[in-house]
Structure formats: C-alpha cells, structure tokens
C-alpha cells in the first residue's frame, strides 16, 4: 500500500542531509539568533495572554549580556595579542646581551670570558668545574676557591690544560661538589649571548635564541648581563 502526502502544511518539514548548509558557528547562538527567537515568540504568543513586561525585560537583558560577553571575549583576544607584541619588542632589547640560564653547555666566543655560577644549598668542602669537548675529551678543569652557600661565580678564559687557547665554540660543562667525603654533580648556570628573539608557537610565549645553544623561553632566564 502506498501513502501519498497531499498535505501542503507538511512541505518543508523534511530535509535532505546531503544539501545541508555547513554550520560555520559550531552551533553557537549569535545575537541575530536571539532576536529571531524573540520575534518568533512575539509572533506566536497568545493575544489574550501576552508576555509580561518583566519577562520581556529579562529576555532583553539576557540578549544584551550575551552580546556583551561576545564583545568582551573579542577585546580580551585583542589585548592578548597586543601584550605579546609588547613583550616581543621589550625582549628584542636583549639581543647582544648575555642571559643566565641553566645549561650543560658553555659558549666560548673567543673574544670574551665565559662566565657562570653555581648555587649551593649547603656548605661544600670543594668545588670542581670540568670543561670538555662534545666528544667527551677533557679541555680543562679548575676549582672554585672556598665555595659557600648561595651563589658561587666562576670564569673560564678559554684556555686548555697546557695553557693553549681553545677555538671558539660550544663546550660541555660539569660541576662536582664534595662535602663530608661525598661527591656529586650539581646544576650549572651559564651566561650566553642572545642572538635573536622569536615569537613562540602554541602558546609558548617569547623565545630567546642563544648563541650556539639554541632556543630558551624568556621565562627560563634567571639574570641579564650587559656583557
């Protein structure tokens, strides 16, 4: 048995999914949608029981709040972009200066001394700085006199064990601390020149490109030096 629909009132109540227009707002209601709903509500309300004034005011208030939140989000997005641009501009002033970061690599430019520091939580009997080539070959080693709690600075002039001048490049650095007959390695912070500044991707923020070492986050910088 075949049923034929001759009721014109049902026309347009079925949709072809293949011809559906893609939803560009991911189902989110816009201000136009709110006002369209309000218009339809007024058009189909019972004339004998109209919507109360306080209900109309409440609905209009909701529409206004929704529109305000949308504009507020847009303003926050614009503010975030502006702050990022300002940070990048300020960070660009670090190019050519040296910044202190934790690293196992030490850069020797051949023109200036290589500097760094070790922070100790406890008093140590002895502190030894060991500098090697990337292949592990020993370049030089020296001790830091009278290591104390807190910051202990060191300087390497780029010389080898025999006093020869080492070529500019990136060397590995390790610090061993001895206390009460026990020796252990501790983290090292070194000064490295900043070669350029980049805008980080995926929300990483401002990135400093350090000479010979690579990229580090601006937030990881412990100290800034003029040289």
TrEMBL record:
Residues 86-221 form the FlgD Tudor-like domain. The keyword Aminoacyl-tRNA synthetase does not apply. Coiled coil: none annotated. InterPro entries: FlgD, FlgD/Vpr_Ig-like, FLgD_Tudor. Residues 106-179 form the FlgD/Vpr Ig-like domain. Pfam families: FlgD, FlgD_ig, FLgD_tudor. It comes from the Bacteria. Keywords: Bacterial flagellum biogenesis. Belongs to the FlgD family. Required for flagellar hook formation. May act as a scaffolding protein. This is Basal-body rod modification protein FlgD. It comes from Alishewanella tabrizica. The gene is flgD.
């Amino acid at each position: 048995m075949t049923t034929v629909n001759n009721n014109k009132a049902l026309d347009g109540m079925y949709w072809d999914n293949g011809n559906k227009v893609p939803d560009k707002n991911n189902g989110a209601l816009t201000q136009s949608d709110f006002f369209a709903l309000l218009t339809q509500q007024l058009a189909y309300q019972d004339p004998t029981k109209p919507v109360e004034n306080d209900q109309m005011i409440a609905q209009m208030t909701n529409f206004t709040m929704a529109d305000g939140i949308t504009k507020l989000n847009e303003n926050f997005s614009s503010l975030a972009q502006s702050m990022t641009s300002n940070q990048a501009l300020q960070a660009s002033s670090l190019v050519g200066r040296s910044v202190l970061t934790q690293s196992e690599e030490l850069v020797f430019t051949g023109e200036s001394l290589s500097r760094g520091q070790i922070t100790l939580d406890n008093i140590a009997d002895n502190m030894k700085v060991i500098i090697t080539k990337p292949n592990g070959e020993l370049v030089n080693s020296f001790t830091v006199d009278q290591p104390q709690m807190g910051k202990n600075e060191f300087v390497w002039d780029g010389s080898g064990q025999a006093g020869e001048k080492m070529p500019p490049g990136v060397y590995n650095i390790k610090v061993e601390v001895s206390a009460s007959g026990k020796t252990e390695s501790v983290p090292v912070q070194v000064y490295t020149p900043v070669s350029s500044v980049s805008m980080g991707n995926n929300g990483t923020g401002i990135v400093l490109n350090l000479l010979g070492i690579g990229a580090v986050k601006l937030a990881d910088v412990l100290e800034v030096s003029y040289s």
